[in-house]
Design brief:
Blueprint lengths: L4 H14 L7 E2 L3 H13 L8 E4 L3 H9 L4 E4 L2 H16 L8 E4 L4 E4 L5 E3 L1 H10 L5 H5 L2
Parallel strand pairs: 1-2, 2-3
Antiparallel strand pairs: 3-6, 4-5
Helix pairs in contact: 1-2
Length: 144
């Protein structure tokens, strides 16, 4: 609820208890809730033993990936998203044709969409994608 890490922590603790610790994986909707789930896994000596994924490429997630308690995060580079939003806004203001539009059904109706490709970030590509690119600060990611 409300992307609340504490709520994710409580739900994960309940899932661990209800399933006698038999958890195969955690697919969290964002890195904050992944962090809440990992706290619960740590409290039950399961952190790093169960793959946990998140989304948003947050600094704390990068640290958890390096530490081995979070497997990966989904990265949608906000720099690219921002440039695309500005580009599309200018085209709309100038009544120009917008390319790459698809129709996407959101479960209720068809909507126009432009989909940009997300990237999976793992320990092996984290430095290149998040640090060397300048998206995250090196000291913030690697501080001890």
């Amino acid at each position: 609820m409300d992307w609340d890490p504490d709520n994710a922590f409580n739900l994960m603790n309940k899932a661990i208890k209800d399933n006698d610790g038999n958890i195969q994986a955690v697919i969290a909707p964002n890195d904050g809730t992944a962090g809440g789930c990992i706290r619960a896994l740590q409290d039950n000596n399961l952190a790093g033993k169960i793959p946990v994924t998140g989304q948003d490429a947050e600094v704390l997630a990068a640290r958890r990936i390096i530490d081995g308690t979070q497997l990966m995060t989904v990265f949608k580079d906000t720099r690219i998203l921002g440039r695309k939003a500005v580009e599309l806004s200018i085209k709309m203001i100038n009544n120009e044709k917008i390319d790459d539009v698809i129709m996407f059904n959101n479960g209720k109706k068809d909507v126009n969409a432009i989909l940009l490709s997300p990237v999976s970030v793992y320990k092996e590509n984290l430095d290149e994608l998040l640090v060397q690119s300048g998206y995250l600060n090196r000291d913030a990611v690697y501080k001890k």
